[in-house]
Write a sequence for this structure.
């Protein structure tokens, strides 16, 4: 049992890094800099991904009659953007690779600044004195994003054909490992998580996710696929960062339970939007063939 407790964090870290490695294997310098070279896109992305979610979550937890631990879990997810599975999900919707990957890289790098700033602001507004050191976030982003991304880019530079062949397999294997890593975590907090059902937490989380999704959709610009890409990036949050922030400030299992409940509810709530985007894309493609 003790061995499993030690292996789960390593498996989770490695699998999330594997997802980022897949991004590096399937991208190039132009994709990485796509959003940074377009200030208007970058500004709308920051607003949708890093500003709107914590504001919406802050209002919601202020209204919800739930425990402070649950409110903390919701806020932590709102603070933590861009999980590694986002680019793959966006490409599955038909999003442009340059925008999806450029958006991911830009938001991941800006996380170093946004997470400590938003976390500190939220803590003060709720009368708490929790802190997160920028070194902690820098270490998480460097080991979980920068290093695997750099390795993927290097492999693609030296062996582009090889990188093109293996990136999908790396992504799929990493997704399987992510699920395996989350199973024991989910089992551990299943009891506390079920206690959150029926007290308004589910509805509150769903409202937060939907509003974040709507913000990304309307700020995504005129292109439907770009709107879908930004909506996905804004509404899907990073449970790894959220749990890292939680472990640095509390040992209350209800916080982790709220984080995982947010993840599960978010996946369910965003599913209809995903299906709508896919159906619209198929219908437009079919109409274009008939012209």
């Amino acid at each position: 049992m003790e061995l499993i407790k030690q292996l789960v964090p390593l498996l989770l870290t490695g699998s999330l890094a594997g997802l980022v490695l897949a991004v590096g294997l399937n991208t190039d310098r132009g994709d990485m800099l796509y959003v940074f070279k377009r200030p208007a896109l970058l500004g709308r992305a920051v607003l949708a991904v890093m500003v709107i979610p914590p504001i919406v979550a802050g209002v919601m937890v202020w209204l919800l009659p739930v425990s402070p631990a649950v409110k903390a879990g919701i806020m932590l997810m709102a603070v933590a953007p861009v999980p590694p599975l986002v680019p793959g999900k966006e490409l599955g919707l038909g999003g442009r690779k340059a925008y999806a990957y450029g958006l991911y890289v830009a938001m991941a790098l800006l996380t170093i600044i946004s997470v400590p700033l938003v976390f500190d602001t939220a803590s003060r507004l709720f009368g708490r004195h929790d802190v997160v050191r920028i070194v902690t976030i820098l270490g998480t982003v460097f080991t979980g994003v920068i290093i695997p991304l750099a390795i993927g880019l290097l492999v693609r530079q030296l062996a582009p054909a090889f990188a093109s062949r293996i990136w999908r397999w790396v992504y799929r294997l990493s997704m399987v490992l992510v699920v395996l890593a989350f199973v024991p975590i989910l089992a551990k907090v299943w009891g506390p998580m079920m206690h959150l059902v029926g007290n308004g937490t589910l509805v509150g989380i769903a409202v937060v996710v939907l509003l974040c999704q709507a913000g990304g959709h309307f700020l995504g610009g005129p292109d439907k696929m770009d709107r879908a890409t930004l909506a996905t990036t804004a509404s899907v949050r990073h449970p790894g960062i959220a749990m890292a922030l939680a472990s640095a400030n509390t040992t209350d299992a209800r916080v982790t339970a709220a984080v995982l409940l947010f993840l599960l509810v978010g996946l369910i709530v965003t599913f209809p939007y995903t299906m709508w985007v896919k159906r619209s894309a198929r219908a437009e493609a079919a109409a274009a063939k008939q012209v």
Notes: DSSP finds twelve helices and no strands in the chain. The chain has a mean pLDDT of 82. The first helix runs from residue 2 to 25. The two ends are 62 Å apart (CA to CA).
